[in-house]
Design goal:
The chain is built from 17 helices and 2 strands. It has helices spanning about 20-30, 30-45, 50-60, 65-80, 85-110, 120-125, 125-145, 150-170, 180-205, 210-235, 240-245, 250-255, 260-265, 270-280, 290-300, 300-320, 325-340; strands spanning about 110-115, 115. The protein has a single domain (about 20-335), classed as Farnesyl Diphosphate Synthase, CATH 1.10.600. It is mostly helical. The protein has a two-stranded antiparallel sheet. The protein starts with about 20 loop residues before the first helix and ends with a helix.
Length: about 350
């Protein structure tokens, strides 16, 4: 199964047949597991403190594709696991992810999440931070309940790495001297680490050899890198309804992402002055976002970002070759294609 290639410059073509169904097919492979995982998530979000289930209900209503817990469930089944430990661990992965989203929205002052008002916009920053802490605590309870020090090590390290990635992003914000390697280090920490851990625990619960666990580490890392690259491109290429958050948020916040780095490096000195004023000095007018879009398009910065994402997605598919052909492996390969197909 090959990764999407040669997407049009404008990135407005239809998703190739079948790719829009990649997640649905993955869900169908572990439908009963995912249903149990969702029940575990709802049950663990309960609390005698009313605000916690209220805010949790808002998060559940906002939806989400459950990609990370799906990776745990499918990885475990691909490795031949026949038990139930992976269900609670998938819920644990989702709690870590949701907690980081709550905290991120507060840090970024985001008003939208998945097309709906963000939790901090409705309940306030303090409640969002504290409920995020609650979800982290629930995640660690699930890790401890599993009883495996190996699992605890993998998931706790991922949680720490995510925090480090977010701090690195804060340190590079508004800094156009950031290079591509530093940018990739940021997304490897803040996004790819959890994808990687989600996949690795699937091999661990199945007690598979280290070579297979490391193959899933590589798969998860590469998928996470591709996913974040596409997310960063979507901030300059998507309709708001598709993106699920306000288009141009990264620009307004002065975040250093690959589309900006590409356009800045390729631009004229006058264009670089524009980027320094808007990104480094945070001096923006109402017309600046449209100009940023124009410069991103002029230098094919979205195309360049997509090409990097496509390489990571292909690397993810190659990492799975250690496993024998199966519907599970095919499903994970298809998710690599789906990851880059979101730019359309």
């Amino acid at each position: 199964m090959g990764v999407l290639a040669n997407l049009p410059e404008k990135l407005r073509a239809e998703t190739p047949p079948g790719h829009e169904d990649a997640l649905a097919r993955l869900v169908s492979l572990v439908a009963s597991d995912l249903a149990e995982c969702n029940r575990a998530i709802v049950a663990r979000m309960d609390s005698s403190v009313p605000l916690i289930p209220q805010l949790a209900a808002h998060l559940v209503a906002a939806g989400g594709k459950r990609i990370r817990p799906l990776l745990t469930l499918v990885s475990a089944r691909m490795c031949g696991y026949g038990g139930k430990r992976h269900v609670d661990l998938a819920a644990c992965v989702e709690f870590i992810h949701t907690a980081t989203l709550l905290h991120d929205d507060v840090v970024d002052e985001s008003l939208l999440r998945r097309g709906l008002a963000s939790a901090n916009a409705i309940f306030g920053n303090k409640a969002s931070v504290l409920v995020g802490d609650f979800l982290f605590a629930r995640a660690f309870q699930l890790m401890v309940s599993d009883g495996s020090l190996k699992v605890l090590d993998i998931l706790s390290r991922a949680a720490a790495t995510i925090a480090e990635g977010e701090v690195m992003q804060l340190a590079t914000q508004n800094d156009l001297s950031t290079n591509e390697t530093q940018y990739l280090d940021v997304i490897r920490g803040k996004t790819a680490a959890l994808f990687s851990a989600a996949c690795e625990v699937g091999a661990v619960v199945a007690e598979r050899p280290d070579a297979e666990a490391q193959a899933l580490v590589a798969y998860g890392t590469h998928i996470g890198m591709a996913f974040q690259l596409v997310d960063d491109a979507l901030d300059y290429a998507a309709d708001q309804a598709v993106l699920g958050k306000t288009v141009g948020d990264d620009f307004r916040e002065g975040k250093i992402t690959l589309p900006v780095l590409v356009a800045y490096a390729a631009g004229t000195e006058e264009e670089r002055v524009f980027w320094r004023r808007t990104i480094e000095d945070s001096e923006q007018t109402d017309a600046d976002l449209d100009r940023a879009f124009g410069l991103i398009e002029r230098y094919d910065a979205i195309g360049a970002t997509l090409r990097r994402a496509t390489v990571f997605a292909a690397d993810a598919q190659r990492a799975l070759r250690i496993f024998p052909p199966s519907a599970y492996r095919e499903g994970l390969e298809a998710v690599a294609d789906y990851t880059v197909s979101r730019l359309r």
